[in-house]
Amino acid sequence: MRAxxxxxxxxxxxxxxxIPQLAAHLVAAGGKRLRxxxxxxxxxxxxxxxxxxxxxxxxxxxxxxxxxxxxxxxxDVVDESQLRRGLASANxxxxxxxxxxxxxxxxxxxxxxxxxxGSLGVMAILSAASATLAEGEVMQMTTQNDLSTSVDQYLxxxxxxxxxLFAAACEVGAVIGEVSAEKREAxxxxxxxxxxxxxxxxxxxxxxxxxxxxxxEVGDDFREGKVTLPVLAAYEAGSExxxxxxxxxxxxxxQQPEDLDRALRLIKETDAIATTxxxxxxxxxxxxxxxxxxxxxxxxxxxxxxxxxxASRES
Length: 315
Hints:
globular, two-stranded antiparallel ribbon
């Protein structure tokens, strides 16, 4: 990860001063770096010899992080977010135009790395994941403010916007490690299920977290009218009076300052957070089970524990 972080910093450099300035803000904000970690761990799990001269997995892991960071820059503009990882978001400091264009720069850097790597297999996986990410965000936009959205539609959204890149991050590690199709598919499934669990918990935390720990404003999804599982569960389990409230604040976007507190109370009363977290644990269990094709090792334990963490984290 230290080597990967150095590649990220090096590849963010540009003669256009605003690009490294904005990039430095992103690096300073930290983050879990979970997606590149998955690529590194998957490659090593699959037997990739990571000697001093074998840093291919490090470059590809940095590429995965660039794709993720580019989407974050664009998403914060679309969502008009003011906080990211506890700090002012890039668009809040540098403006929407700069955030979108630097996001484009990071996408371009990612594909420069892929071109230099030269593997059509790796390029196919990550380019397909990038398209799916965009589709997921567009699908979320079309379901926004629509309480008739089904749970299956919601799950399709979070697969597209989050789980697809988790799956790709793991699968490219398997490609680098040159393992069998069975093990490659196992890691793809691991990443997909891990990503589903991760996003489900993220959506739960928007209504249940300590804002200082969360790193963004609690209730962002509520204010934006996003239809997530906590809202769907509370809407389904609520009284007709409660449903009238949800339709007003989510579908009609008529929100008063006190409405978030009422939404939090209704979500608590209907156990909507518990419903969401149970679903997350189901996906985490699937992720852990998919690793059964691999022999026991420290890296397998790391990935197993990461799946458990994804369904129980508090920030």
